[in-house]
Structure formats: C-alpha cells, structure tokens
Amino acid sequence: MEKTKKVLCISSLDTSGISGTAADVRAISALSVHAMPVVVNYVIETQDAVVEVFPIPLETIEKGIKTCLSEEPDAVKLGLIGRADVAERVCALLPQDIPVIADPVFLASSGQMFADTRYIDAFISRIAQRATLVTPNIAEAEMLLGTKINTQDDAKIACLELHRRMGCSVLLKGGHLNATDYLAHERKIYEFHGEHIPLELRSMGCNLAALISGYIALGYRVVDAVRESKMRISEALRKPAFMGTKYIPDLVHVLHVNAQRWETYTGLQGKITEFLSTLRNEHIPEVGINIGYAIPGATTKEDVCAIDGRIVKTTVGPSVLPIVKFGAGDHIPRIILTVMRFDAQKRCAMNMRYNPEMVEKAKKLGYVVGTFTRDAEREKHRDGTMEWGTETVIRGLGCVPDMIFDLGDVGKEPMIRLIAENPEQLLAKLKKLVS
Predict the structure, then answer these.
(1) What one-character-per-residue DSSP string does 5-36 give?
(2) How wide is the angle at C-alpha 365 spanned by C-alphas 363 and 369, nearest 5°?
(3) Fewer CB within 10 A of the terminal residue: the chain, N end or C end?
C-alpha cells in the first residue's frame, strides 16, 4: 500500500477556527494529504477581531517539530509565527531537502499586526532563504520591500524583485488589489487570474498556501501546484461557507459535491442499458427520449446529468450512444429542477411518447397523474413551457406526481414525463407501465 503524503504545518491556532492551523488541516486534508500541526501561538479571536495572543513556549514548539520530523513529512507549511526566536529555531531544525511553503501572515484580516520588525527581518534573512516558495499578499509584500504597490504593473515588479532578493519562488497574492496572483519562479513571471468575489472573505491566503503545500507534498512542481490550488479555491468560492459575518472557501463542501456528482453520474450511466432493453420503438416520440438525474440540491442545468443526445428508434429497437454528462439535454433538466423546488427527493425524470392507454394504466397502478394544456399560457410562457406546465400540475395536485402528460400543440408532440427519486425507481415505474 502506498504511503500517505504528509505536510508539517507550523502555525497558530485561533479560536474562530477560520484560519491558521484549523484552515491548514482542512485544506490539506481535502487533497487526501495528512496534516501534522505544530502550534506556535494560541490566538483568541472572533471572525472580526483579535482579542489576545498567547505564545507557546519555544521548548514545546521545538519538541513538536522534532517529533513530526521523525515521521518524515513530504513538505512543510509555515503560517503565522510572528516571533523571531521561533523563526530562527524552525529554520535550524528543518532538513535542507524538504520543500517549505512560507506564508508571511504579518497582520490579521482586521488589521492588527502579528509581526514586529524583528520578525520581519527574521523572515527575510532566515525563512525566505530557506523557503521553496513564499506567499505574501500585497500588504505583506509592501512590508518586505518597503515600497507601495498600487497597480498590477507594480505587483509584477514587486514579485520579481522579491524573487531576486530572496532567492526563492514568490507568489504575490493579488486579492487585495484585484483577483490576479503573480508567481515569480526561475526568473519568469506567471499570472493566475481569478474571479473577484464581492464578499467579506477570510482565510483566503491561508487556504491557498496550505493547498500549495499539499500539492507539493504530492510531487507537483511549483507552477502546477499553484495552478491547481487556484482552481480549487475558485471552485470552493462558488458556494462559500457563511460564518456569520465573514465567508470562507469551503474546500470540504467541494469534495462532498464532487462525490455527489460521481454518484449521480454512475447511478444514471449504470442503468442506460437496462432502460434500452425495457423500451420499445412504440414508446419513443419523434423527438426521442432523454433521461436525467440531478445531484442533491441541484439549482442549475449543470447540476443535472442527462443523456448526451436522445434515445431514438432504429430497425433493431431503441438505440443511443451510451454517454451521459452534466449539462446535457434541455427539457428534462428543466423539468427536474422545477420538480425539486417542491420535492427535493424527486431528482430523476424521463420523457416518453404519449399513449392514452399508458396514462390509464398508470392510474390503475396507483400512480399520481397530472396534465396541463400547452396553449393555455403559450404566449406568456413561450420560453418556459416545461417549467410552467410542471409547476401548474404540482400546484394543482398539491404534490409531485409520478406522471405528467400533455396533448401537445401546433408543432408540439404530445408527451409523457415520468418522475422518480432515482434511476432505479424510474426504471421500476417504467417496467410496470410497459409490461
């Protein structure tokens, strides 16, 4: 069995749990890398302000580092240290062959300084000289250089100058200026663009540096580690966690969503062959059949996995390219999203050719059946008939039915839609209808 990669995290633990050691562990664990924390300071703080900082004794820190090093970590991530004596001791203890990602953390998000001039000097003369990569934000880069950074051109110049002075790679995080980060690596400058998020964000830099350290532990090169980490952060910011007054990137939620997408994809893909063997040409409308299955909590078409194309009639029976993907299809995903507004458990649907005998059979089987008339609101809902028709039926019945049908309109084929919780349940309903 392959040994799990490990990152030694030397940072501070804060009571908010938003940044520092807690954030390091969350971010690194999201990559299936093991985090080994050594705490330098215990920081009493809320989401909005630092209350007090309690330094951990140097002897305790040293013992923790030595113990973790005996486990042979694959990378080191340095966060809030803020103490010159600790900086000196850390650099003396770390082996020369282990990559070090150093996040300066000179001041809190609320503006309180964590570092005095002695620590900033120690960061430049000791930590930066030992680091593989340092990750200052704009304010920290200004402290390191003693100059102001006002524009993107200033940021590029500052990044290259820090790279020249320190001798290590430098990632200048531009969130305080714009959404672009600059990486100076091997005397080249790289740009990593991100989307500006108009929210009160915390722990962005901490999470980014922690992710980079995780990717470095996994064997990624610096440029690739930064690129992958930026992508992870951007993905996590699509649905950030709201902590009460501030937002943070929710990297664990991203893992959960990815797992849900995989389960949804395999759940539908694994049943396509059985759907094809159950259906006959007489069940297929002229426009073909599509089947869709949404992730829990779906809100957009991209959250719905559907057949990429349609099940169509052939001389040997129903046929389709056996490919499903997220974002495919149109009508069925829209129906599913509408249904889920009323019943979040009903995440699967398909369309079929209308047959009055099949509608009657559904009623005899005890299926809840509803219908709507397309021309009733044709002009008003020209671009949203599927949503309007589905919602009209649900509101009229007071529940989500098993079947919704309509008798068509000018240029519109009559159609049946079957609704279920998942592909297995949908297939069971279909088999009863066509048997």
Answers:
(1) PEEEEEEEEETTSSSHHHHHHHHHHTTT-EEE
(2) 35
(3) N
Listed in sequence order, the residues at least 6 apart from 43 whose beta carbon sits closer than 8 Å to its beta carbon are 12, 13, 14, 15, 20, 50, 52, 53, 54, 80
**Domain residue extents for the chain:** 6-249, 259-434
What's the full length of the chain, in residues?
A: 435
Q: How far is CA 258 from CA 97, 107, 232, 254, in A?
A: 35, 34, 12, 6
Residue with tokens 């009863």: 432
6-249 matches 259-434 in fold: no
Strands (E), 221-341: 241-242, 247-248, 291-294, 304-307, 324-326
Q: How many of the other CB atoms lie within 10 Å of CB of 219? A: 11
Q: What is the CATH number of domain 6-249?
A: 3.40.1190.20
What's residue 144's pLDDT? Answer: 93
Measure the CA–CA gap between 41 and 54, rounded to whole angstroms. 6
Q: Please list the ranges in the chain whose pLDDT falls under 70.
A: 110-111, 175-178, 197-200, 202-203, 240, 322, 375-383
pLDDT at position 379 is 44
Tokens representing residue 420 in the block: 């279920």
pTM of the predicted model as reported, rounded to 2 decimal places: 0.71
Q: Which residue has the tokens 């993905």?
A: 235
The DSSP annotation for 232-248 comes to HHHHHTTSPEE-SS-EE
d(CA 298, CA 336): 9
Question: Cβ contacts of residue 388 below 8 Å, gap of 6+?
Answer: 372, 377, 381
pLDDT, residue 161, reads 95
Is the CB of residue 4 less than 8 Å from the CB of residue 32?
yes
Homologous superfamily (CATH) of 259-434 is Class II aldolase/adducin N-terminal domain (3.40.225.10)
- The two beta strands, 133-134 and 169-172, are parallel
